[in-house]
Amino acid sequence: MNRLRLLALLCCCLPLGLAHASRIKDLTSVEGVRSNQLIGYGLVVGLPGTGEKNNAFTEQTFRTMLNNFGIKVPDNIKPKIKDVAPVAIHADLPAFSKPGQTIDVTVSAIGEAKSLRGGTLLQTFLKGLDGRVYAVAQGSLVVGGLGAEGADGSKVVVNTPTVGRIANGATVEREVPNSFSQGDTITFNLNRPDFTTARRVADVVNDLVGPNTAQALDATSIKVFAPRDPGQRVSYLSTIENLEVDAASEAAKIIVNSRTGTIVIGSQVKLRPAAISHGGLTVTIAENQQVSQPNPLAGGQTAITNNSTINVQQEPGRMFKLDTGATLDDLVRAVNQVGVAPGDLMAILEALQQAGAIQGQLVIL
């Protein structure tokens, strides 16, 4: 009995994974199996006067399009193109896409067009980084935005009216070659590199198929031997990617976003013994303007003087103590008792980091 038949028999006897386990397909991606970005340039027509005004490259594109249909516009005639807008088209070509299949495209105005609502994209080539055409796009746009402008210059804009999408708007014309069926191995790359998780993935595959079938190359890549026959390789990969693995716990981190005041503390974060004192200092400055009026017949001038009042209030400081091995719950509970604001909590965390009391990494965005 060869290894592939043994694999099929073992798959029927696999026990149900634990609730906290994850499938290999959720933790990894297969090397060489990826999408490719496509981009193109074209024209959207049929706009209700919300298109381009007077743009040289738009006029050039419009003339070129007419020339392709055998229509020659004299140089001394300037076409009115308020119902036309130049656009950039981009799409993602999924792996294993075949000629004749369709993909979604996004269309974005790149000129002075105010809205693409009601427009139709004319046939446009979508190219890859190698300059080759992989898809052809065309169709009516669906625009979720709306814009309206009054005669006095006031306007209302809802969402983005200069960006639209065409569902199944591009037809694939060329297949992107890949290395999936080449070689004797398949490489799985972890979405979040971790040495422990990589070793566990290799152990799970080896326990099922046999020793030395999988090998963790580093914190990201796990090399797995696989059959060369494409049909067998698909079945083999389908089995491997549905194996469940207990992913390793993430590294202890505290993420602080100073712009939004968001603070996320990982469950692995622990604190060394520390005493924290927190007190708030409030400074209030009030400006009052007074009028200084000269005496009669004094020859002076009325003047405005500023009277500043400065008031300083300091809240009584509070102190709390964290014992050895304090956890996330202990820290949150202590901070809530003090009642600090997000900005004050950031200062406390930075001070703890400087004091070496945090067993984890403090990341400030």
UniProtKB/TrEMBL annotation:
Q: What does this protein do?
A: Assembles around the rod to form the L-ring and probably protects the motor/basal body from shearing forces during rotation.
Subunit arrangement? The basal body constitutes a major portion of the flagellar organelle and consists of four rings (L,P,S, and M) mounted on a central rod.
MF terms per GO, please? structural molecule activity
Q: In terms of domain of life, where is this protein from?
A: Bacteria
A GO term (biological process) for this protein? bacterial-type flagellum-dependent cell motility
State its location(s): Bacterial flagellum basal body
Query: What is the predominant subcellular site recorded for this chain?
Result: other
Could you say which residues form the signal peptide? 1-21
Q: What is this protein called?
A: Flagellar P-ring protein
Keywords per UniProt: Bacterial flagellum, Cell projection, Cilium, Flagellum, Signal
A Pfam match is FlgI
Question: What does the record list as coiled-coil region(s)?
Answer: none
Q: Which NCBIfam families match?
A: PRK05303.1
**One Gene Ontology cellular component annotation?**
outer membrane-bounded periplasmic space
Family label: Belongs to the FlgI family.
> Ion transport: present as a keyword of the record?
no
